[in-house]
Structure formats: C-alpha cells, structure tokens
C-alpha cells in the first residue's frame, strides 16, 4: 500500500536538500539561477525525479543541462 502523504513529505525534503546542496556544495559560477520546481517520487520511494527551471539565455540553459 502506498502512503501518499509520506511520498509528498519525502519529495519536499528532497527538493529542500537538493537546493541546499546546489547553493552550498556546488561552487560553479556558470550555474546561474536554478530553481527546483517539483520532485516526483515513485510509489515504492526508491526513485525521485527532480524538475528545475533555469533563468537565462538559451545558451545558458543548454550549458546547465549539459547539452551544449
């Protein structure tokens, strides 16, 4: 049985931890303005997918995504 409330709490915690790690651990000046917008956790809580947005030009967005 899936506990949806637990999955939502875990997703929110993952989003906060990812944002903190990005701000404190990753020291890349090329990152620019990255915002985590959503986290989706699988029902078994084994995997999470983070969604983000980037404020900047098309080139900066591709560079951050690793598609440059």
Your description of this structure?
There is one protein chain. The chain has 68 residues and is an alpha+beta fold. It has one domain (4-65): GMP Synthetase, Chain A, domain 3 (2-Layer Sandwich), CATH 3.30.300.20. The protein has 2 helices and 2 strands. It has helices at residues 4-24, 58-65, and strands at residues 33-41, 48-55. A two-stranded antiparallel sheet has the order 1-2.
Structure, briefly:
This protein has helices spanning 4-24, 58-65, and strands at 33-41, 48-55. It is an alpha+beta fold and 68 residues long.
Separation of the first and last Cα atoms: 43 Å
What is the highest CATH level, the class?
Alpha Beta
Number of helices: 2
User: Rg, please?
Assistant: 14 Å
Which stretches are poorly predicted, pLDDT < 50 over at least 5 residues? none
Topology overview:
Blueprint: H1 4-24, E1 33-41, E2 48-55, H2 58-65
Antiparallel strand pairs: 1-2
Quickly list its features.
GMP Synthetase, Chain A, domain 3, 2 helices, single chain, elongated, alpha+beta, 68 residues
């Amino acid at each position: 049985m899936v506990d949806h409330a637990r999955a939502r709490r875990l997703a929110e915690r993952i989003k906060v931890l990812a944002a903190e790690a990005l701000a404190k651990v990753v020291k890349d000046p090329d990152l620019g303005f990255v915002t985590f917008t959503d986290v989706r956790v699988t029902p078994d809580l084994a995997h999470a997918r983070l969604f983000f947005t980037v404020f900047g030009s098309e080139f900066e967005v591709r560079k951050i995504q690793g598609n440059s």
